[in-house]
Specification:
This protein has 454 residues and is an alpha/beta fold. It is 44% helix and 13% strand. The structure holds uridine-5'-diphosphate-xylopyranose (UDX) (2 copies).
Length: 454
Amino acid sequence: MKVCVVGTGYVGLTTGVSLAFLGHEVTCVDLDQQKIDMLTGGSCPIYEPGMEDLLAEATANLTFTTSYAEAVPGADVVFVAVQTPSADDGSPDLRYLRSAAESVAQNLDHDFTVVVNKSTVPIGSGNWVDAILRESFAQRADRPAGCEFSVASNPEFLREGNAIHDTLFPDRIVIGSDNPRSLEVLNQLYRPIINQTFTAPSFSPRPDDIGAVPLVSTDLASAELIKYAANAFLALKISYANEIGQLAAKVGADISEVTRGMGLDQRIGSRFLQAGVGWGGSCFGKDTKALIATAAEYNYSMPIVQAAREVNERQRLIAVERLQDELRILKGRKIGLLGIAFKPNTDDLRDSPALDIANLLLARGARVRLHDPIAGERFRREQPSLAPYLSDSLDALFDDCDAVVLVTEWAQYLELDWGKFVGLMRTPILLDGRHVLDAERMARLGYKYLAIAG
Ligand code: UDX
Ligand code: UDX
């Protein structure tokens, strides 16, 4: 099928490259000329494991352009995957979505095009995009006769850092539309994934236990709500583990044992129970906020989701308080933060706990140093106020440090020669912000090992 993808961010790029890999003819459009140039040259503007390899494999079916006029005409499906950042009141800022929808409408010419909202959008946005498309299309002097279109929702569940695996081997595919023809087109588009008929790429092998992928084919509003409900649930699962973690510290229990014991109950499941400094990234914070904002429009409150957010915010403060309890005085202390990205295997810094922790420490007079194996350059560009505190080397970070915090559990840090660095520190305090290091081993190496929770 002929596919257009608007927006080559984490979601759009993964969607476009994966569909091209599956044999569809894909054109990706983005307004950022620099990104398009990089992609045309075969390199990837974001750090996502396997993406450049997949790009290379799919290149015959892929075109990158800044021109909607090149990308939209003839497309059976147009995915809109532009950013929807939070506005000040917590509601998503939809101006990028509006302008993308208008540009799509200016260029529709096919007998039937499904326009898919791939961005996470508030419930009801499908109807809103539909209205914008119809309005913009009606204003066109050159609008072709016999050109039909319809809006669908196809939420994305990919995790950054695992984007290709999650796209090719998903737990489920959700498509929502009030038009049966749209559902049929999307069903056809995703056949290779649903039936798992494609040859898996060598760098992302097919899991042994995957069967046919369940397809949830539903109405527009339900599909939109599924995305929010799933993300908010994962966010609150983590916050729950963190809330129990603080209690565990007080009663002398070991949170890792507690969550292991909980997670083996199949009704609970072990994933997303990892306690630590809490969640960040582009989705959980934004989506929980948007869900609460949508509910408020209906004069409805969501105290569980709200509590998950508050617990998450508190975790970042707890990290700082743990250090303060230990060092007594933070003023003038040198604190090293290991990891700036919001989680390993991505260079995404959006809502990263490290940024908040750094700012809280600076506000209390500490001297902060940050390090990340991949996200350093992006950090320098996107966080000018914190950029001067970036350490290029681990030696520089550990040197004369009063405490080090593991904020992001990059494999490089887990495999670090910790024994080599302890001697550089002024006081060898190590706060494990993710509960991933072996406490006994660290103590043997000479660290004073602290965890966020019990
Ligand atoms: C519960 C726990 O499930 C079990 O793990 C623990 O050991 C003891 O307490 P039980 O009392 O048998 O077990 O209740 P269960 O049937 O599991 O569910 C508890 C309540 O939750 C019921 O009233 C049930 O109707 C309700 N429930 C359960 C829901 O409202 N929604 C659900 O999805 C599941
Ligand atoms: C998330 C959803 O998982 C995905 O389905 C959705 O489409 C987009 O949002 P992503 O934000 O890429 O994906 O990252 P995810 O792997 O979900 O992690 C989110 C945050 O939770 C990270 O900061 C991570 O460190 C944290 N986390 C995750 C925990 O603190 N504990 C856990 O047990 C798991």
